[in-house]
Write a structure and sequence with these properties.
By secondary structure, the chain is of the alpha/beta class. The chain has 13 helices and 20 strands.
């Protein structure tokens, strides 16, 4: 753990910050932005412990750990998708799980005749491959800071000890159907992660970043609530679910974004720095509680103000507002314009969803469908009443009825709002 940590002076609600490398801390050029580096160093100096959680071998994680001085600040490596957990302070291996050599041989036999697919594995210091000039193998070496490639005549014969990970490399047209087939064949023995369109990582069943993070937390006597996890790809899913605060990059897969508590900027936009500054170093001031007065003040210089919409009641799952039928909202014949009715309905549903959002969420109107039943005339004031009829994790559906001053239904509207993570 970080020796700088002091219970008395520690400024954050989280003790651990676990993060992926490729597509997360590193940009598309496999470099760490200077401002990202500075933000990570600042939270370390404040006492936070960093954990690198990557599908890379330990060899490919170590240079980033050295750059961040994680040996000085008590950090940890979870390499091979969590198959190996190492203390940066003394190199002690806290956890390990490998693929039995018998299973490696069986996997090799299953893919050896597949056109366009090759298999590689790793030792502590080398990538083992049957063709070192394979462009995908070369790319893997480059990603891992020039990890040496040892070319062998037979991959199974070259394996002298059970590896932490194997990988299948090749064109995506060959890999996609193969993954499905192998998952069925090696069920309960191997797990397959797609970390790039040309790359499938193969680890023992039960190995994933989430499991390893949980293991590390137990070893350190910490809770999930004290942990932040940041990632972008499928092999980060469980880690984000385990953490007290799961953060997805803007470039993350949709599956990762759906499980995240917060979506930050992309890896090419300093997303890690953006998140650290916004939520740890310079947190936003507490927002004013949502109220009728706040909603009406928010409407200044908006379409809602132009239409004369005034919120009158606001409660969980229920909103009321009024709107005049005048020169702003009427048709040339002097009756209420249908578009104004729909604008009122969308406004009410939007405000209603805002009342239900978590701090890390926003709502976006996706669909509105209305039935116009009768007319309202210039000089009238109509009332909209919105009631939620479906409250899901990713969508809200509202029913909005618009009434005349004599309580006759003028228009009935359904509004669908999409609930997204803040970026």
């Amino acid at each position: 753990m970080n020796p700088k940590y002091s219970p008395k002076d520690y400024p954050f609600p989280y003790r651990i910050l676990a993060f992926d490398l490729d597509g997360t801390v590193l940009d598309d050029e496999k470099k760490m932005h200077p401002s990202t580096y500075s933000a990570l160093m600042e939270v370390q100096r404040a006492g936070m412990t960093l954990v690198i959680a990557s599908g890379r071998p330990t060899y490919g994680c170590a240079p980033i750990a050295r750059q961040l001085q994680m040996d000085k600040y008590g950090g940890y490596l979870m390499s091979y998708n969590g198959g190996k957990i190492t203390s940066c302070v003394d190199g002690q291996v806290l956890g390990r799980k490998t693929i039995p050599t018998k299973v490696v041989h069986e996997l090799y036999d299953a893919i050896k005749d597949r056109e366009g697919v090759s298999m590689i594995t790793y030792t502590r210091e080398e990538i083992i491959a049957e063709n070192k000039d394979n462009p995908y193998v070369q790319a893997e070496s480059k990603v891992d800071f020039g990890m040496p490639i040892r070319e062998v005549a037979s991959l199974p014969d070259a394996i002298t000890r059970a590896p932490f990970k194997c990988a299948l490399v090749g064109n995506k047209e060959s890999l996609r159907p193969l993954k499905v087939e192998l998952e069925t064949r090696f069920e309960r023995r191997l797990t397959f992660f797609v970390s790039a369109e040309h790359f499938i990582e193969v680890v023992p069943t039960g190995v994933d970043k989430g499991y390893s993070l949980d293991f590390l937390l137990q070893d350190l006597h910490l809770t999930r609530k004290e942990t932040i996890a940041v990632g972008d790809n499928y092999n980060d899913l469980r880690m984000l679910q385990v953490a007290g605060l799961g953060v997805a990059m803007a470039n993350a897969t949709e599956a990762v974004k759906r499980v995240a508590d917060y979506v930050t900027l992309s890896n090419n936009e300093d997303g890690i720095r953006h998140f650290i500054n916004k939520h740890l170093l310079y947190p936003e001031e507490k927002e004013e509680p949502i109220s009728v007065d706040l909603m009406n003040r928010m409407q200044k210089n908006t379409l809602m103000e132009s239409l004369g919409i005034t919120v009158t009641k606001l409660a969980e799952g229920y909103v009321e507002a009024t709107m005049p039928v005048d020169r702003r909202t009427r048709q040339p014949m002097g009756i209420l314009h249908g578009g104004a009715s729909l604008a009122l309905a969308e406004t009410l549903a939007g405000y209603g969803s805002i009342m239900l959002l978590k701090n890390n969420e926003i709502q976006v109107g996706m669909q509105v469908s209305g039935n116009h039943i009768r007319a309202a005339h210039e000089g009238d004031v109509v009332k909209g009443v919105a009631t939620i009829i479906h409250r899901g994790r990713s969508t809200h559906v509202w029913n909005v009825d618009i009434f005349s001053e004599t309580d006759e239904v003028i228009c009935s509207v359904r509004v669908l709002n999409s609930i997204l993570k803040k970026r």
